[in-house]
Amino acid sequence: xxxxxxxxxxxxxxxxxxxxxxxxxxxxxxxxxxxxxxxxxxxxxxxxxxxxxxxxxxxxxxxxxxxxxxxxxxxxxxxxxxxxxxxxxxxxxxxxxxxxxxxxxxxxxxxxxxxxxxxxxxxxxxxxxxxxxxxxxxxxxxxxxxxxxxxxxxxxxxxxxxxxxxxxxxxxxxxxxxxxxxxxxxxxxxxxxxxxxxxxxxxxxxxxxxxxxxxxxxxxxxxxxxxxxxxxxxxxxxxx
Length: 240
Ligand SMILES: C[S@@+](CC[C@H](N)C(=O)[O-])C[C@H]1O[C@@H](n2cnc3c(N)ncnc32)[C@H](O)[C@@H]1O
Description:
alpha/beta; single chain; seven-stranded mixed beta sheet; binds S-adenosylmethionine
């Protein structure tokens, strides 16, 4: 008899996945896309080439494809590729991509941390709200894989929940999709990346204001240095 292999955790969340908005406190702060849009706008400022097209972008652990979809909706013109350990989430990503946004991203399953892509294939890689779901001993393999698929001079962007923000810890502890989450702060991400390769790294803090209150965006931009935002973005550049 063959050994039973557990299906990936997110297969059971895929059909109803909404980024944890079943938490009422989180729902009060904005809709699912408004949370993603904070990261997408930050990326478009950081990577102006994403508006021009011609950039290849891998979204690692893309889930239902929301970051690529919101980026494209805000004018991102990259060649998009997504991968995930959950084939259920990849099926959702394909189903949720609107034809109005043009060709759907290429989607591929991961085998654990490993992806099927070539060495140095991508100009830009993103990994958003994934690492806190990856068991701590498996995280170095994820950092190594991201470094493998990124070209010299390529940029990697890690978005995570900030455990230094007390409201974040409160919400995560009460959100079903996060029942197994182990949060990590920006210092842990920087150390993990630098343990796997040479990068120039910087961190910005995001989401000081509820994402639903778009007119307060200027506050977020002014406070990007303060390690208390609900999210953070670690930007890592691989030497050319
Ligand atoms: C909270 S969802 C985030 C999805 C998407 N990145 C976003 O921002 O909307 C976490 C995703 O990480 C994926 N994932 C990828 N690699 C993983 C791994 N090694 N362990 C656990 N989850 C992993 C899950 O399957 C899931 O789709």
